[in-house]
Amino acid sequence: MTGTPSRHRVVATIALLGLVVGSGCLTLSPTVTIETTESTVFEQLSVTEPWASKSVETTVTLTPAATTTNGVTQLVVIAESGSTFDSTTIDSGQTSVTMYLPTNQNATIVAVNAVNGTVVERRTVATDGNKLF
After folding, report:
1. What sign for the dihedral angle of Cα 54, 57, 61, 84?
2. pTM across the whole model
3. What span, in angstroms and rounded, lies between the C-alpha atoms of 64 and 67?
4. Pick from 77, 89, 93: which is nearest to 115 by CA?
5. Is 42 among the domain residues?
6. Residue 120 domain-assigned (yes or no)
């Protein structure tokens, strides 16, 4: 029975590698770049995983005023193709949220006040990293 956990790990690792290889690409040490100077909504974006396949898991940190004073209720990520890549609803007072960005390309993150239908702010975001295949 002592060999069972390591066997499970090996099988899980092989399955994960198969999924990553099957998805077409693997990016190690992904990075996210956003200009937050003079932003009233975004404080920073940071990568949460050491690798990415089709998307980069990212923590979006908002300014304290983003959801209160500025009324942001939704964030939307728009890919270079113009289609919605990810979106999430945020609550008043919330200052961080996990979102997914397209790997190795630019995107636009849009902060929306869904109550009155206005765009509060939009920023260009770039993801990069060491693309293996």
Report:
1. positive
2. 0.80
3. 7
4. 89
5. yes
6. yes
